[in-house]
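ok here's PspA/IM30 family, seq below lol
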Amino acid sequence: MSNTSGWSLTARLISKHFGVLGDKLSETIANFDPETATEADRDRLQGTLRETAQKLAAARASFDKEHSDVVNLQNLIATDSKATETLMARLQAGTISEATVTLFCDELEANKAKLPTEQQQEIDAKSYADELQQIVDGLSKQLADFDSAAKKAMQTLASAQAQKDLQSMRMERQSELDGLKGLGGQSTALSALTKRAQSVSNEAAGLKIVADIGQKPLDQAAEIDAIRKSVAQADTSGESALDRLKRLSAH
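and the structure came out like this:
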């Protein structure tokens, strides 16, 4: 099979299945990127309006031509009809040939027979232009309605997105608050730290008990020594000067 035949087959397959494929593809694109899809729909509608407007312009030009042909033909028939009396007088007077008058009459009759056809063509052209005008008006309104609906839809989408973002933020804040609450009562690290602090406190209390036990004999010995010193100091209150000198010299 040649490349040309291959392309021809491909074109036929696409043409046969494009309707379904195009609808599915358009729906997929619209769901994926609604903004771009909306722009594409508007471009298509605006393109249809532009093409129809161009046809309307051509139809108006055609009608203007048909109308001009009818007016010119009517004026020509009216002028020739008025000339018939003059021609009859000249024919009777022998100042114009019968062949010329016959040719004139043939053209006048032909123009009169042609007038209904020209008038119908004018009517048809006017009807076609009027129908195109209605289509253009309808497309113009449809485009305006589309823009209004698209604007409203985009605003609705933006509002919905804002609400979605807001609710997402609320859920994030709730999750953060739940996490902070967990630090107060359910945190494993904090619980371990509290237990460690209690353990260290217990160790400190135990060491204090041991230290107090060791310190007690020392305190008792110091207390006894203080008593002895106080007693010794009390016994020297009645000593003589000689005994005092002996005591002092012994130190």
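fwiw The two ends are 136 Å apart (CA to CA). kinda neat tbh
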